[in-house]
Amino acid sequence: MSRARWAIFAYHTFGARALEALLAREEQVVAVVTHPDEPDEGDWFESVAEIARIHRLPLFTPPSPNLPAIVETLRALAADVILSVWYRRLLGSDPSRCPASRRSTFTAHCSPRTAAGRR
Q1: Does 43 score more than 70 pLDDT?
Q2: Rounded to the nearest 5°, which phi and psi values hold at 90?
Q3: What is d(CA 34, CA 52) in angstroms, rounded to the nearest whole number?
Q4: pLDDT score of 89
Q5: Are 70 and 45 in contact (CB under 8 A)?
Q6: Which of 54-58, 80-84, 97-101 has the lowest mean pLDDT?
Q7: Distance (Å, rounded) from C-alpha 34 to C-alpha 9?
Q8: Alpha helices per DSSP H over the chain
Q9: d(CA 73, CA 62)
């Protein structure tokens, strides 16, 4: 059985750790979509973009993941799984414009209750 092809939409330390976990498992990451690192946000979180550059992964920092050029590029990369971790933009609700995966899409985000320390 062949390994899944992953596209990851990620930002912040949470996204960086998820990308590192995929790489540690030797998963095939075919695309990394993130936000440009913002100097005014400080340097207290890990950079998804830097990890992608170090590992020479295809890196995209579009203003929207739903731009036709991005959607088509990601479709051409034929990801089996899309993982979204702490990514700030919604992937398109119109299936014809959403970056498609061939198998599954997973999202991992902190809820306001978790962020406030409540259970």
Answers
A1: no
A2: -80, 140
A3: 10
A4: 75
A5: no
A6: 97-101
A7: 6
A8: 12-24, 48-54, 68-77, 112-115
A9: 12
Q: What percent of the chain has pLDDT over 90?
A: 36
Domain count along the chain? 1
Segment 58-77 mean pLDDT: 90
Q: Which residues contact 19 (CB under 8 A, 6 or more apart)?
A: 8, 10, 29, 32, 48, 51, 52
Q: Strand, helix or coil at 114?
A: helix
- CATH number of the domain at 63, please: 3.40.50.170
81-85 sheet: strands from edge to edge:
59-60, 28-33, 5-10, 81-85, 104-108
Quick check: 9 pLDDT over 70? Answer: yes
**Domain region containing 94:** 5-115
